Amino acid sequence: MEYSSWGYSTKYCLTQDSILLKVNKNVVEKKMEDLYSRALTKKESVKIYQFLTSLSYDTLKDEYIKQGIYDATDIRVQLYGDGLHSKNVLLYISTTAITDTIEKLVQRHILDTNFQLRNLHALQ
What is the pLDDT along the chain (124 residues), one digit of tens a residue? Predict the structure, then answer.
């Protein structure tokens, strides 16, 4: 999951064995730096994989854009992996029940609340 605003990116990477937060602190060089990481337990990894395979995220459109406001903030959700259907979704001032669920899944695994991101467009 990647958040971007005016050239600055924040990327949350949930892999089979870890979660990683990367940020772009230099908009000119566009170099991503690791800011937070932690290893996932085998139990967490299996539970996440089972959850993702149960979601019908393949029904999502490629983009969801709410017209009328432009603040240069977007969210990109990229899903791929062994046994998962690859999907890339752009959310611009918008969200869906499935993308909101995926975002909450990722944020739940960031144990340090200082690194959790609040999506103002998340579904309540």
Answer: 665 655 668 888 888 899 998 888 776 777 888 889 999 999 999 999 999 999 999 899 999 887 776 666 778 888 888 888 899 998 887 888 998 899 889 888 888 888 777 665 555 5
Nearest-angstrom CA–CA distance, 23 and 69? 25
- Sequence-ordered strand ranges (E) for the chain: 2-5, 8-14, 18-26, 31-39, 63-65, 73-81, 84-92
Report the distance separating Cα 24 and Cα 123, nearest Å.
27
Count Cβ atoms below 10 Å from residue 55 Cβ, excluding itself: 18
Q: What is the DSSP code (8-state) at residue 78?
A: E
Its pTM surpasses 0.85: no
